[in-house]
Design brief:
The chain is mainly α. The protein has helices spanning about 55-65, 80-100, 110-115, 140, 150-170, 175-195, 205-220, 225-240, 245-265, 275-305; strands at about 20, 30, 45, 50-55, 120, 120-125, 130, 200. The longest helix has 30 residues, at about 275-305.
């Protein structure tokens, strides 16, 4: 008595089962997807626990799989690419400074510094308005990629590497990038409002934002933050004791770090799903960015009145 073969697909080719791959019509194959029965060539075979699956079935199956998230809603980070990219831009900015500096090689003498450093407002010899209030809005962020000396770059770079890699693993790429950028902008905005004639460079605003966020998120995770607290306290003392340090950039960045760190760590609550958490974080981050924009737009009324 002869039995008919089962209707389900087989992963083993039969003697007369040669067909063409459903994705590559020029390739003959005797192997079929174990789930849907489509013929698949070797390039389209995805090994499964039983037989082979086609790319379409694998894709459909992945849609129902819930993607892993960190405790704060971000996707797990394999490598801190954002941290590395920002560090690369900081180094590239300093090398560009040296390439256009005076013969002695002083980075602060570079035309790039005079053109892209943070400056709320100033005047040229013929009375033209310079700085952010003169229309140079790019100074709000470009100053973060310039530094006054090798030591300045090394200090900010080391802090960026230590704090950035940890925060990026906690928050994911997107939230971490938003934290860094808004921290740098917050320091620049406070400089425009409180010390508009101050000329400054450096990523200190963003670095202090990372300090603030690490402190807040670390408390949420119940970590031992004594060392972070000591470093933060020492840097705050140096901010007001050492001359020629932009206290506005430090304080503005620190406030941004505290606020955004609290948003990412505590809102909208432990019981909220990933979608609600993401929407809340996006809306509040955008709201903070809008606040910074509003402060800069109204700055002429405050500073030049």
């Amino acid at each position: 008595m002869t039995a008919s073969p089962p209707s389900g697909a087989s992963s083993e080719p039969g003697p007369h089962a040669s067909r063409t791959c459903y994705r590559h019509s020029d390739r003959e194959t005797g192997v079929s997807c174990h789930r849907c029965g489509r013929p698949i060539c070797p390039d389209c075979m995805v090994e499964a626990s039983v037989g082979f699956h086609c790319p379409t079935c694998v894709s459909e199956g992945n849609r129902g799989v819930r993607r892993a998230r960190t405790a704060f809603g971000g996707r797990p980070v394999a490598k801190p690419y954002v941290t590395w990219t920002i560090l690369g831009l900081m180094v590239a900015g300093f090398i560009a400074q040296l390439g256009t500096s005076d013969p002695v090689g002083r980075a602060g003498s570079s035309p790039l510094v005079w053109e892209f450093a943070m400056l709320g407002f100033g005047h040229t010899e013929d009375g033209a308005l310079l700085g952010v209030l003169g229309g140079d809005w790019y100074r709000l962020i470009t100053a973060a990629f310039l530094h006054g000396s090798v030591f300045h770059l090394l200090f900010n770079g080391y802090a960026m590497y230590v704090l950035g890699t940890q925060l990026e693993s906690w928050l994911g790429h997107g939230r971490f990038l938003a934290l860094w950028v808004l921290g740098a902008l917050a320091g620049s905005v406070l400089s425009v409002l409180a010390a508009p004639a101050q000329f400054s460079v450096g990523a200190s605003g963003a670095i202090f934002a990372l300090f603030g966020a690490v402190f807040v998120i670390g408390r949420r995770l119940r970590l031992d933050l004594r060392m972070v607290g000591v470093l933060l306290a020492v840097n705050l003392v140096l901010t007001f004791v050492v001359p020629q340090i932009s206290w506005t950039a430090h304080i503005g960045g620190l406030v941004a770090g505290f606020l955004l760190g609290a948003v990412f760590a505590y809102l909208p609550g432990r019981s909220a799903g990933n979608t609600a958490r993401t929407v809340t974080h996006v809306l509040l981050t955008v709201a903070f960015a809008a606040l910074l924009v509003a402060l800069v737009v109204t700055a002429p009324l405050i500073v030049l009145s």
